[in-house]
Amino acid sequence: MAASDQAPSMLVPTDDEMLQTQAELWRHTLSYLTSMTLRCAVHLGIPTAIHRHGGAASLPDLVTALSLPTAKLPFLRRLMRLLVHSGILASDDAGTTYRLTPVSFFLVDGAAAAVPVVDGHLSQVPHVLASTSRHCLDTVAGLAGWFREDFPAPSPPSPFEHVHGVTPLESTARLGPEDAALFQEGLRVYDASGFAVVLRECRDVFGGGDGTAARAIAEAFPHVKCTVLDLARVVGDVPADGVVEYVPGDMFDFIPPSQAVMLKVMLHHWSDEDCIKILAQCKKAVPLQEERGKVIIIDIVVGSDSGPMLESQLLMDVAVMLVTKGRQRDENDWRDLFMKAGFRDYKIVKKLGPRCVIEVYP
């Protein structure tokens, strides 16, 4: 056998590497328990109980506040230990008193938080519960089967559709009304998260969904006239409030003429082909760059950061893959879409956490 035909030799780890690898494999294999422990904490109301207890609570305090059997205190201690290690909660040096962290601050029940925010929905509880629901777990469990299946073109189902027969937002009959409502609310708070920061940090940029963002812009910048375009079934019954104009329609067919069009956390739901169609309609709707026309996109740019932020972007990409035909995109992907839709230039205005604000110029 020629040297070039020989199979490459396998790298054999040392004893120390073997032990380290074993621990690393355990961590990856069991990391789902971090998500499910978080789900348990939210279901029990642990962050809200700590908040209502003045921002710090002991295990006996929590057992009392949550109406748990006292026999569960040792088990609660073990749950809290993982939550602290994961950064979801904090504790004192003795590990007897627990406090909220910036992460668990967003898991306090919205009614209990009493913190004014632009969208009125600070709590990310619905997104946590929707993302860790049995429907999502069943979808992940069936992912290998989805990969093996040779679906007919041109519109293969998402993994979620393959497992459940419907999309997360499509049918309450198959998912049940409570689960369908949870997915709707989870998507809404995910889309709205961080928008108050966008308004504060990108005031020069502003000079979907249910109109929450448009109303926030109109309130922050009264001189800006805001119009929300959505399907008739979504905005047809929305009462006029004199602040935001609601226009029923389909963005694939027509977008009302505007100085600027904003696409907030929505293009990742769509395939590249559909994104190009949407962007082409946006280009028709806005004036040239010389006349200050632009399209404002708020979405993830994969690779815009590193470390945990990059990991969150990659996880979100797989999450999108599970439930839609879209994807999260890196800067090259975005540039390719803009050019194919006929735009001349773009600029990443600001990085805000895992998302970016992008201006696209016709």
What does the model show?
This protein is α/β, with parallel strands linked by helices and 362 residues long. It has three domains: 31-108, Arc Repressor Mutant, subunit A, CATH 1.10.10.10; 129-188, no CATH class; 201-361, Rossmann fold. Helices cover 47% and strands 14% of the residues. It has helices at 15-30, 32-44, 46-52, 59-65, 73-85, 102-105, 110-113, 125-131, 134-141, 143-148, 159-164, 172-175, 177-192, 195-201, 212-220, 232-235, 272-285, 308-323, 331-340, and strands at 56-58, 89-91, 97-100, 226-230, 244-248, 260-264, 294-302, 329-330, 345-352, 355-361. Strands 6, 7, 8, 9 and 10 form a five-stranded mixed sheet that branches. Strands 1-3-2 form a three-stranded antiparallel sheet. Strand 7 (294-302), helix 18 and strand 8 form a beta-alpha-beta unit. The longest helix has 16 residues, at 15-30. The protein starts with 14 loop residues before the first helix and ends with a strand.
Helical residues, percent: 40-55%
How many beta-strand runs?
10
CATH architecture of the largest domain: 3-Layer(aba) Sandwich
Low-confidence region ranges: 113-121, 206-211
Assign the CATH topology of the largest domain.
Rossmann fold
CATH 4th-level superfamily of the largest domain = Vaccinia Virus protein VP39
Instruction: State the distance separating the first and last CA atoms.
Output: 60 Å
Write down the Rg: 24 Å
The largest pleated sheet is described as: 5 strands, mixed
Mean pLDDT across all residues, rounded?
84
Number of helices: 19
Class inferred from helices and paired strands: alpha/beta
Structural shape:
globular
Sheet-strand content, in percent, reads 5-15%
CATH class of the largest domain: Alpha Beta
Helix-strand sequence: HHHEHHEEHHHHHHHHHHEHEEHEHEHEE
Indicate the multimeric state: single chain
Number of domains: 3
